[in-house]
Write a structure and sequence with these properties.
7-stranded parallel β-sheet
Length: about 240
C-alpha cells in the first residue's frame, strides 16, 4: 500500500473481515480504514472508523461509500461478505429435491446482488492515477469448470454469478481507471462461522485460521497488477478457471 492509503473492508464483523481489518490497521501505510458491517463494531484502533452497511439496504451502501471518501478517494476495497447457511432456515442443498425458491433468492441476494451494489457505489470512489484494488471473496465451488461433485446449488450459483459480475465490472472499470484492479478471491477453507459445520473431516493443513487466509490474500493483492484485472485467484495466487 502507498503511504496514507484509504481502505474499506465490507463485512468487517465476520471472521475474515475482522482479520482483514486487524492486519491492515497494523500496516504503517494505512492512513484510514473504514470497517463496514450491518451492525457496526466498536474498534479500539485509531485508524479504524466503523460504518453501517447492510447489503439488503442500498441506501446504507451509498451512505457508507460517501462516508469512506469524505477526505480521500479509496485505494483498496475488500468485500468479505457471504452466506452458506443460517440455522435450519438456509442449508446447502445435497440434491435437486431440496431446491427452494426462497433460499435461492436469499443466497443470491447476499452473495451476488449485495457485492454488485457495493461495486456500483464504491468502484467510482477509487483513486485515479495509480494502482487501486477492488476485491470480492468468492469460492472455488463457484467455478463451473471445477464442479465435479454437484450439490450446494444455491451457493455455487451465487458465487459463479459473482465471478461473472467481477469479470464484467473489471472490463468497464479498466476503461475508466486503467490502473484499477478488480478481482474475485478464493480464501481457502477458513475456520469461521460460515464453514465450521463442514470442516469436521479436514486436517489442519486444509483449514486456515482467518488471520492466515487474510494475510495470504493481501499478499496476492499486493503482487497483482492491471494485467490480472477480472481474474479469479486463489489464496496462493494461482488462477482458478471460471
Amino acid at each position: 500500500m502507498s503511504p496514507q492509503s484509504n481502505v474499506a473492508v465490507i463485512g468487517a464483523s465476520g471472521g475474515l473481515g475482522r482479520a482483514f481489518v486487524e492486519i491492515l490497521a497494523a500496516d504503517a501505510n494505512i492512513g484510514t480504514l473504514h470497517a463496514c458491517a450491518r451492525s457496526p463494531v466498536r474498534w479500539s484502533m485509531p485508524a479504524v472508523h466503523g460504518h453501517r452497511l447492510d447489503l439488503d439496504d442500498e441506501d446504507s451502501i451509498a451512505a457508507a461509500a460517501e462516508a469512506a471518501t469524505e477526505s480521500s478517494p479509496l485505494d483498496l476495497v475488500i468485500v468479505a461478505t457471504g452466506i452458506l447457511h443460517r440455522g435450519d432456515d438456509i442449508q446447502p442443498e445435497k440434491t435437486m429435491r431440496e431446491l427452494d425458491r426462497r433460499v435461492l433468492q436469499q443466497v443470491l441476494a447476499i452473495n451476488t446482488v449485495g457485492p454488485a451494489l457495493v461495486a456500483r457505489h464504491f468502484l467510482p470512489k477509487l483513486r485515479r492515477g495509480h494502482k487501486t484494488v477492488f476485491a470480492a471473496l468468492s469460492a472455488r465451488v463457484g467455478s463451473i469448470r471445477d464442479n465435479r461433485l454437484g450439490g450446494w446449488a444455491s451457493y455455487r450459483a451465487s458465487k459463479a454469478a459473482l465471478n461473472m459480475l467481477i469479470r464484467t465490472l473489471a472490463i468497464e472499470q479498466a476503461r475508466q481507471r486503467p490502473q484499477s484492479v478488480v478481482v474475485a478471491l478464493h480464501p481457502g477453507t477458513v475456520d469461521t462461522r460460515l464453514s465450521k459445520p463442514f470442516t469436521g473431516r479436514l486436517g489442519p493443513e486444509d483449514l486456515f485460521e482467518p488471520e492466515d487466509s487474510a494475510t495470504r490474500l493481501l499478499h496476492v493483492l499486493d503482487s497483482i497488477d492491471q494485467e490480472q484485472t477480472g481474474a479469479f485467484l486463489a489464496y496462493d495466487g494461482t488462477s482458478i478457471e471460471y
